[in-house]
Amino acid sequence: MKKLVGMAVMGTLVCALTTGVVGQRGPSAAACDRACLTGIADAYLAALVAHDPTKAPMAPNAKFTEQAQVLPVGGGLWKSATEGPTSFKIPVPDPVAGQIGLIVMMKASASAFPAPPARGGGPATAEPAGPVAIQLALRLKVQNRQITEAEHIIARIANPGQLANLQTPRPAFMAIVPPAERSPRSLMLLIGNSYYDSIVQSDGDAAPYADDCGRRENGMHTAGAGAPPPVPGAAPRGGGPPGGFQPQGCREQMFSRGLSYITSIDLRRVWIADEEKGLVFGLTMFRQPMEEKSVTILNPDGTTAQRPMSFNPFDLEAGHIFKIRGGKVHEIEAMGFQLPLNSKNGWSNFTR
Question: What is the pLDDT of residues 94-134, one digit of tens each?
């Protein structure tokens, strides 16, 4: 009960802040509704593949970043994209903020996005001759029906199992939420942000996870409902030794302290929400100094175990989309790209 009351109070606070802060982020939002934002995003993606920024409604002074670096419009993926999204695209249009966030699958030249190194010292993935699959988290800010900000986070997806999970979005992300189960936009933003608090605090009650919550990251199932059966003797999907950790429920995973190696989640921008479909789009920087080479796991029976974490320090610039229905998080689609520890994001002069 105390937690519900606390969330109600915080919801009121966020509502007040929304009027003064989020509204300032999109002063021309009324000029571009959901259909307008979605159409502009489609035009932007088509222009990427055409390698021609003039085919998108770019403002003359538009700012563009890719992988946390400020680039000229026309650089980065503008040069290497070869095929736009087909069957995997999750848009989150928000006319109040005057912004739209998306996670999509598309293709780009292999030379621009080499395969990531194999984990655990395994053999490197052979490079294909043609274009490769990439996952793109895209944020666009629109003012006066022109794109004033464009942001890319890109992950090369090479593993066949992960690619299989990224053929089409899970149905929940496309479903309209019945009016009686919708949450106010201000509360949705609060719920999305609470997910990051839940990780940093190792507290499964810091966010309102539904029993059927499931999370995928770069196409890999990492928590909750929808997990494929474990393969005997194979390296576990969540990292660690064979036969060890396997994905747990979204709430239970937090209590297990399995993500406690993430010491902070900074540069949070949880600004974009779609009340009709119950979606929240967030961008963040996960800090992982990896100062300890193992994590103490708390088992449900109260016993503990050690999980090796032999990784070098890194940041993960991440994009998330949360499905919220009935005030709870039911699905999470996430992706990320590794950067050096304590990176900036290209939009702030600060690291926090």
Answer: 999 999 999 999 999 999 988 766 554 555 566 666 899 99
Q: How far is CA 178 from CA 182, 228, 275, 276, in A?
A: 7, 29, 10, 8
DSSP H or E stretch at residue 78? helix 77-80
What residues make up the domain containing 295?
A: 2-113+132-225+245-339
Residue 182: closest CA among 261, 57, 278: 278
The number of folded domains in the chain is 1
CB 351 within 8 A of CB 344: yes
Q: What digits encode the pLDDT tens for the residues 53-85? A: 999 999 999 999 999 999 999 999 999 999 999
Q: If we measure between CA atoms, which residue out of 272, 137, 119, 259 comes closest to residue 202?
A: 259
Contacts 24+ apart (CB under 8 A), 210-213: 210/325, 210/326, 210/328, 210/329, 210/330, 211/249, 212/330, 213/249, 213/250, 213/251, 213/328, 213/329, 213/330, 213/331, 213/332
Residue type at position 28: S
DSSP codes of every residue in 102-159: EEEEEEE-TTTSPPPPPGGG-PPPPPPSS-EEEEEEEEEEEETTEEEEEEEEEEE---
Domain-embedded: residue 191: yes
* CATH number, domain containing residue 283: 3.10.450.50
